[in-house]
Amino acid sequence: GAGVSQSPSNKVTEKGKDVELRCDPISGHTALYWYRQSLGQGLEFLIYFQGNSAPDKSGLPSDRFSAERTGGSVSTLTIQRTQQEDSAVYLCASSSFQNTGELFFGEGSRLTVL
Amino acid sequence: GDSVTQMEGPVTLSEEAFLTINCTYTATGYPSLFWYVQYPGEGLQLLLKATKADDKGSNKGFEATYRKETTSFHLEKGSVQVSDSAVYFCALSSGTYKYIFGTGTRLKVLA
To answer: A99 CB near a chain B CB, below 8 Å?
Structure first.
């Protein structure tokens, strides 16, 4: 597709379960970002990829969170042993290497932990 | 560290009213400034940007001027429409990969 695609769009899980969120960026975009959007909060930076490398993982809230990117394309954000405070919308964005300053966002994955 | 502060919402206006959403920033150096908009059920999309002091970004009738002296980038529109109802995010980038976003301001325009 032409835009950033995220799946699932909605995920309800029980506390303690693991979840995987997927992001398919715009073809050719080398930069990929994960953000978290909680109710009443701004966008919280989680991790940045340039190609398959993650030079900045500083925003990951705990070691329960991890992310990988393969083939310079699809990325997966994994949350292990989910907690209720992990409930949020997880946003993925991509950008071309020749950074025009524009991030292209997916519609997000809404995670609800019961 | 760098930060963005924008006015809290929600902002409720009648159609054709004048809109201002305030945004101020703290940054080292000379950041680029952005407004992103999130329409209901959609992802964030770039509305406008400005890359240096005194630049004016504009799009879809919205404008914002990069004011270095007041570290501000207020969003304005002369006559809002119902279709402008959305959440608006101010953001900055200090020339690296990192983007800092404000908390968002929800705008509701009534017919």
So the answer is: yes
Q: Phi and psi for A86 in degrees, rounded to 5?
A: -80, -10
Q: Mean pLDDT, chain A, as a whole number? A: 91
CA dist., res. A77 & res. A19, Å (int): 8
Tokens describing residue A109:
């994955």
Q: What is the pLDDT of residue A32?
A: 94
The residues that bridge with A104 in the sheet, in sequence order, are A94
What is the structure's pLDDT at A99? 56
Average pLDDT over all residues of chain B: 94
- Chain B residues with CB-CB distance to A under 8 A? 4, 32, 34, 36, 41-46, 49, 51, 89, 93, 97-104
Distance to chain B for A80, nearest Cα, Å? 26
Using alpha carbons, select from A99, A102, A107 the residue that is nearest to residue A4.
Answer: A107
Residues A21 and A46: their CA atoms lie apart, in Å, by 13
